[in-house]
User: Fold LysR-family regulatory protein from Halobacteriovorax marinus.
Amino acid sequence: MTQPTLTLAIKRLESSLGVSLLVRSKTGVTLTRHGESFQRESKKFLEEWFELKSKIIKEKDDIRGIYSIGVHPSVALYTVGDFLPDLYRKHPHLEVSLFHDSSRIVTEQVISHQLDMGIVVNPVNHPDLVIIKLISDEVTLWESLNNKNNDVLLCDPDLTQTSSLMQKIKKQRNDFKRIIHSDNLEVLRDLVESGAGVGILPGKVVGTSNKKLVSLENAPVFKDNICLIYRADRVKTRASELLISTIKKLKQ
Assistant:
């Protein structure tokens, strides 16, 4: 570094701090009281900086770090358990933080860098997103074998699937006199099992081994795609690559 460049750098530093760091005289340059204090603290800062740099490099090359995954609670019940236990067993320095909300909110959080990745239903295309289809599902009308309330419809009114199916249902039948609303699909499923009425439910939430519920014959169907999403410009580490490759194995 040349002398003029060094002098300019010191002046910028003094201007930023609002104090003089050096006393300049004919015999040389000495530190002011503020300069001595800055020198002591800057050594600590440099030590912390090199520690942080070492940690980041290690995290980039090792399977370690904390990663956030957003997923709707109902989707989490049939996806997360298929990959998280083995990841934790094999990689003791890897941590995953789960965030639960609607697929729309999760997608927004991934786009805005608040989440590392998401497992979402029917994501909307976005230029910053990589979208990988994992699982297919079908949302339709279900009832129990001992349904006591054929005129009662159970559903989550905030789901796109519900509004789409409701329009088709009205064209086919008009005999639902009452509606039970809930934003918890597992609660709706249990109510349908108890005979409370006919429910709008995803097949994955009902479960393939569920012998209590049957889908209504000739009922309209809404096709769902469960997808992995993450930003195209994400910071690539060995851990994030492992997470993505592991979740992709959920594909049918």
